[in-house]
Amino acid sequence: MASPASPRQWAEKGTIRRITTWDEPVMHRHCPPVTDFGPALQQLAADMFATMAAADGVGLAAPQVDVDLAMFVYDCPDADEHHHFGVMCNPVVELPQGEDRNFDAAEEGCLSWPGAYQSLARPDQAICRGLNEHGEPVTVIGTGLLARCLQHETDHLDGTVFGDRLSSRARRKLNEQRETLRHLYPDDWPVTPRGRYDATVVDTDDDSPNA
Question: N or C: which end of the chain has fewer CB within 10 A?
């Protein structure tokens, strides 16, 4: 069966799910590999695309919808503003070494800790190899934001959140931001959109990427 031809087509086949938070155990476990590439996996991918779109994200890992599985979806531009999307199962990320390794320090956020951002230096290039939703080998070469997304999502599948990579001071600031804005995000967000359940809340837009 052919896969949807766009992130929108994926999302139209899916149902928005609640996004888990860093407080939950599923976010801190190493995920088992995908072994069944049948209809259930296709539906999970569609649900994840729908959820990612509702949350205005560029990537989403299976544990972020409370599924303990080594899989993520992405819809993200690279350094040249070329858009990439797809499903990645059992990913392995390769990073440049030695003189080829350049770090990019940029603000990073996470849909599982919404509203909070801190600068984090990551390699500005990444190659991700894995399997697509049909179990076929795929390779994604990432630059710019896409490189960051591939690293961020693969971290999730190893039970690592980007806050784990911050200094103690930056992690405290991140958590303070999260607490300040927690009231904007309902417990079932993004099933219920942020701010909508409280008419007294004035919502603001943020252009920083989330994954």
Answer: N
* 70-104 pLDDT per residue, tens: 999 999 999 999 999 999 999 999 999 998 899 99
Catalytic residue among 12, 24, 81, 153: 153
- Residue 42 and residue 22: Cα distance in Å, rounded? 26
SS3 letters across the chain: CCCCCCHHHHHHCCCCCCCCCCCCHHHHCCCCCCCCCCHHHHHHHHHHHHHHHHCCCCEEEHHHHCCCCCEEEEEEECCCCCEEEEEEEEEEEECCCHHHCCEEEEEEECCCCCCCEEEEEEECEEEEEEECCCCCEEEEEEEHHHHHHHHHHHHHHCCCCHHHHCCHHHHHHHHHHHHHHHHHCCCCCCCCCCCCCCCCCCCCCCCCCEC
Length of the chain: 211
**Torsions phi, psi for 141 (to 5 deg):** -100, 115
**What domains, with CATH codes, occur in the chain?**
7-184 (3.90.45.10)
* Segment 131-145, tens digit of pLDDT: 999 999 999 999 999
**At residue 55, what are phi and psi to the nearest 5 degrees?**
-95, 0
12 is catalytic: no
- Predicted TM-score (pTM) above 0.90: yes
